[in-house]
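Today's session is about reading a structure prediction critically. Students often jump straight to the picture, but the first step is always the sequence itself: look for stretches that repeat, for charged clusters, for runs of hydrophobic residues. Only then move on to the predicted structure, which in these notes is written as discrete structure tokens rather than atom positions. Here is the chain we will use throughout the hour.
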Amino acid sequence: MLRTQTSLSTWSWERIMKWLVLLGLVAFSECIVKIPLRRVKTMRNTLSGKNMLNNLLKEHASRLSQISFRGSNLTIHPLRNIRNLVYLGNITIGTPPQEFQVVFDTGSSDLWVPSDLCTSPARSTKIMFRHLQSSTFRPTNKTFRIAYETGRMKGVVARDTVRIGDLVSTDQPFGLSVAEYGFGHWRFDGVLGLNYPNLSRSGAIPIFDKLKNEGAISEPVFAFYLSKDKQEGSVVMFGGVDHSYYKGELNWVPLIRAGDWSVHMDRIIMKKEVIACSDGCSALVDTGTSLIQGPGRLVNKIHTLIGAKLWRSQRYISCSVVNTLPSIIFTINGINYPVPAQAYILKDSRGYCYSAFKEKRVRGSTESWLLGDIFLRLYFSVFDRGNDRIGLAPSV
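Below is the predicted structure for this chain, in token form.
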């Protein structure tokens, strides 16, 4: 084991045993594990433009680049598009570093990865953090739970060095999962939350906030460019914006309130008729959600209008009529953002077409929507913590 002796000399056996007992009390009776993606090497290069970056990303699926933008450092970190369902980026945790592929998620605030304390027989099929192999690991006695739209997890808070490319956060609090449910079919290792710290379920400071507070990020901004269909080309950037990833000007939308990446949406239109959000509603701009989600009644209305029929858990439609379907327009802060049928109709593994609109599992007293990757593939998005706003512009 790497660095095991250093770790054991740092802690007493009594302290380790107490922490393992705590984890045992937290864990469920079994852990449902996820299938890890094949690992790829991380590299760095200094680039002057997006075309060069895309050429390099075609050769290396997980390469970091850093360019200069208006005198400040802009870190661009590559993401991999997995079948238009999820976008993954590499991070490392520990000393020496252990690598994980995580979802960079604006809908949550916590960073967590699987731990080696899960006793499922299938644990060997999954990438896990091995705490005894890190000389900089520090345990805590805090536990937490998170429920997502697609699953839930339970874990403990620990501290260690976390790296996103060349961005380094030492003694970063993060979660180690000891139980996960509902993630079995998703091919990611963990989640890196980019929402506001007040939404942290573990009570830990999010990594973006820690990097910002320590001056590692020159501007309190991050942005996403999500590629369409191809695996490579998607990026998350920290500390500024590369203008070559979008067309025209950014349209800035104020948040409903500081503390959540939700904006006010004016209406949803099809064929010049308002079909949802008729009195205005909220919309969470969510990079961790693959689809567009809304209230069941209104999602069903959209499915009726486009002729999508329920079969099992999806709403299917004949692929032959996709090109005849109208765009659905989301009006935000007075600006129309069309989503054409070629974007909101997807194909499953058998080649059948289905709708990307889905009912939200979590219901609220007011109308709210989740604008996920279906929307964000069309529109470059900037998340400005300094001014509590989101910028949107058509992607290149």
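Discussion point for the tutorial: The longest strand covers residues 167-181.
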